[in-house]
């Protein structure tokens, strides 16, 4: 087992890779991968998928909100591809760009999208888009420029 993610309170997504993949220099992406959906309370395996699975990609596209924001049970401001038209358009553009970059290979596109799972976040997103830190950017270069600038007393920032 390499990574695990909670999808619902009772369902987890587990990513399995070979033991040799951890010490591999070319990268973990070249080794076999198995993604398993499991009901951990009952001990049932709900599905097992490889990195090229068409059915798993469809499941990802239908359940983006649950996969990305499993901890938010009642999200009043959904922002994933099944609820937000702009997010869907952006996702389709990304998917088309991946397909075009690899010479039109749907298989490679599926592999690249599926290999991103399970999602990991460095912060916990909030339920309201007005306080979401991902919508704001802190530009270090601008702060450095302001700090280095010598202003006279009459100049206003």
β-strand amount:
15-25%
In angstroms, what is the radius of gyration?
A: 21 Å
Largest sheet: 4 strands, antiparallel
For the record, give the distance between the C-alpha atoms at the N and C termini, rounded to a whole number.
54 Å
String of helices and strands = EEEEHHHHH
InterPro entries: De-etiolated_protein_1_Det1
GO molecular function: ubiquitin protein ligase binding; ubiquitin-like ligase-substrate adaptor activity
Pfam family, one: Det1
Can you put this structure into words, describing what you see?
It is a single chain. By secondary structure, the protein is of the alpha+beta class. The protein has one domain (3-148). Helix content is 31%, strand content 15%. The protein has 5 helices and 4 strands. The chain has helices at 54-62, 64-68, 85-101, 106-114, 140-148; strands spanning 3-6, 11-17, 33-39, 44-49. The protein has a 4-stranded antiparallel beta sheet with strand order 1-2-3-4, with no helix packed on it. Strand 3 and strand 4 form a beta hairpin. The longest helix has 17 residues, at 85-101. The termini are far apart. The mean pLDDT is 71.
Short description:
It contains 5 helices and 4 strands, in the order E-E-E-E-H-H-H-H-H.
């Amino acid at each position: 087992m390499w990574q695990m993610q909670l999808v619902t309170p009772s369902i987890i997504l587990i990513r399995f890779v070979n033991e040799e993949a951890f010490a591999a220099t070319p990268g973990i992406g070249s080794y076999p991968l198995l993604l398993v959906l499991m009901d951990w309370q009952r001990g049932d395996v709900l599905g097992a998928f490889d990195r090229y699975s068409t059915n798993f990609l469809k499941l990802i596209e239908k359940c983006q909100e649950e996969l990305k924001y499993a901890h938010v049970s009642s999200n009043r401001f959904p922002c994933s591809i099944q609820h937000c038209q702009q997010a869907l358009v952006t996702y389709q553009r990304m998917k088309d760009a991946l397909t075009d970059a690899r010479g039109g290979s749907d298989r490679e596109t599926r592999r690249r999208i599926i290999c991103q799972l399970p999602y990991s976040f460095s912060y916990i997103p909030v339920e309201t888009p007005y306080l979401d830190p991902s919508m704001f950017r802190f530009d270090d270069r601008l702060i450095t420029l302001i700090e280095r600038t010598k202003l006279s007393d009459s100049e206003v920032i």
